[in-house]
Amino acid sequence: MKKPSKIVSKHPNIIKAFNAIPLDEQPQVLVELANHHDYNRVSKLNDLQKEILKLKGGAAMVAKAKKNAAQFVKDVEKQVRRKPKPTHRSKKDRKLTWTGRGSMPRWMRAEMKELKLKPDGFLIAKKK
C-alpha cells in the first residue's frame, strides 16, 4: 500500500470523507472528481483566454471564444464512458457474455470444467 502524497496529507478531511464512502461507490466518486477537475480546468483556461484577448483588444474574438468555451464545457459534461464490448461468449447459451473485466462469471467456470476448456476457448472473434 502506497503512502498518501504530500498534497493529500495536507488535507486530512478529504481522506476521512473518502474513507466514509462505501468501497463500491469510490470508483464512481473518483470519476466524478476527475470530471469536476476537468470542468474547473476548462473554466480556468477560458478565463485566462478571455483575459489574453481583452489585453489584445479583440472584443469580437472574446465573444467567439466565450461561445466556443460554453460548447466545450457542455461537451465535457456530457462525456460518459461507453459500455465495454464483450470478449467472451458461452458455448451453450449465446446470450451469456463477459467483458473480461472483474471476476470470471459462474457460467464460464462451470462450462470450463464441463467442456475442459480454457478461457481462450470462449473468446469472441473480432470482426474486420
* Helical percentage: 55-70%
Major β-sheet strand ordering: 1-2
Which structural class matches the secondary elements? mainly alpha
β-strand percent reads under 5%
| Low-pLDDT windows of residues | none
The whole-number mean of residue pLDDT values reads 82
Q: Figure out the total of helices.
A: 5
Order of helices and strands: HHHHEEH
Quaternary form: single chain
What distance lies between the first and last C-alpha atoms, to the nearest angstrom? Answer: 42 Å
Compile the SSE list and pairings.
Elements: H1 6-9, H2 12-20, H3 26-56, H4 59-78, E1 88-89, E2 97-98, H5 106-115
Antiparallel strand pairs: 1-2
Task: Describe the protein.
- The protein is mainly alpha-helical.
- The protein has two domains: 6-78, no CATH class; 88-122.
- The protein is 58% helix and 3% strand.
- It has helices at residues 6-9, 12-20, 26-56, 59-78, 106-115, and strands at 88-89, 97-98.
- β1 (88-89) and β2 form a beta hairpin.
- The chain is elongated, with a radius of gyration of 24 Å.
